Amino acid sequence: MALLILILIPLARFSVFLLVPAGSGARQEVVELGRGSTLRAVANKLESRGVLSSAGLFALYARLKGGDARVKAGTYQFNDGMRPGEILGKMVSGDIFQRLFALPEGYSSYQVAEMLEKRGIFGREQFLKACRDQKLLSELGISALSAEGYLFPGSYNILPGKTEQEVVREMVLRQQQFLDSGLSRKGGGSGLSAHALLTLASMVEKEAVLPAEKPLIAAVFLNRLKKGMRLQSDPTATYGVRAFAGKVTREDILRPSPYNTYLIPGLPPGPIGNPGKEAIEAVLNYPNVPYLFFVARGDGSHQFTSDLTSHNGAVRKYLKPAGAASPGGPR
C-alpha cells in the first residue's frame, strides 16, 4: 500500500499540474526561445515569472510528448491562465508573438511617430529623437540630419524590448537592401544621388493619387529641374507644418521654408516623407515625355501639359474659378 501511495502522489501532482494553470490569466509574459537554447531554460524563465508552477514537470511533460525536440525558435507571449499543453503547443506550432506595425507609403517621420505613440509602442518624441540620432545615421551611412525618407514603408514586428534606434535601423536597412537590389540598373535612371532620388521620390509619393501617374509626375519634376524651373510642389509647402491633405493655401505657398519649392530653386534639402517602391522606381525609370505641368482633375487623376497656355486652360477647366486653394501641381 505504501508503495502504491508513493506512486500515486507524484501522478496526482503531475495530473494537477497538467490540468490547473498557474494563475488566472492576468499575468502576461513575453519570452524568447533562441536558436540553440533549451526548453528547460525557457521553462525556468516561465516558472520564475509565475506562468508555470513547475519548470521540472513541464520539461518532463515536453519529453513525454516529444515536444522538446520539435519546438521552434521565436518570441512567444504566454499568460498564467494557460495550461502546460497550451504553452507547449504554441512553441511546437511556432505561434510566435506578433506586434505588427505598418508604415504607410509617403508618411513623414512625424506621422510615423504619431502612429507609434497612438499604438502605445513608442513615444512620439523618443522616436523622432532616434530618427535624428547622428551616431546612428553615421553608422547607416546617412549624411542628412534625419532619417526622413530613409524609412522603408512596409510591415514590421516590433517586439517588446526593441528600442527606437533598433526599429529605425531595421527600417533603413530594408530600404538600403531594396536600393541595392539592382533597381538602379533598370532603365535609363535619373542620374540623381541617392539622397536626391529619395527626396524627389518622396514628392512624387505625396503628389500622386493613382499609382499609374507616378512616372508621369516624376517626369514633370525632372523636366523642370533640367530647365531650371521651380518645382512648385504643393506638399513641400506644408512640410514641417502639417500633414499634406491634398490642398494648400496662399499662406502655405508664401511661407518661407527651405522645403517650399514655390520659393526655393531645385529640390528641397531632403525628403518630405518616406517613399515606397513604386515612387522610387518612377524616378529611376521616368518616361520620355515633354510635360512640364499637371493639374488635378478632381477625381484623383491629373491633366498633364507641356506649355503654360495649355496648363492655364486645364486650370480653368478643372478648378473652381473662385477661391481655389491650389491648382494641384506645378504651374
Structure characterization notes:
- By secondary structure, the chain is mainly α.
- It folds into three domains: 19-93, Endolytic murein transglycosylase (Dna Ligase, domain 1, 2-Layer Sandwich), CATH 3.30.1490.480; 100-179, no CATH class; 189-318, no CATH class.
- 44% of the residues lie in helices and 8% in strands.
- The protein has 14 helices and six strands.
- It has helices at residues 2-19, 39-48, 55-65, 84-93, 109-118, 124-131, 134-139, 164-179, 194-207, 214-227, 234-238, 250-254, 277-284, 308-318; strands spanning 28-33, 74-79, 100-103, 154-157, 293-296, 302-305.
- The strands form three sheets. Strands 1-2 form a two-stranded antiparallel ribbon. A two-stranded antiparallel ribbon has the order 3-4.
- A hairpin with a 5-residue loop joins strand 5 and strand 6 (302-305).
- Helix 2 runs antiparallel to helix 3 (55-65), helix 5 (109-118) runs antiparallel to helix 6 (124-131) and helix 10 packs across helix 13 (277-284).
- The longest helix has 18 residues, at 2-19.
- It is elongated, with a radius of gyration of 28 Å.
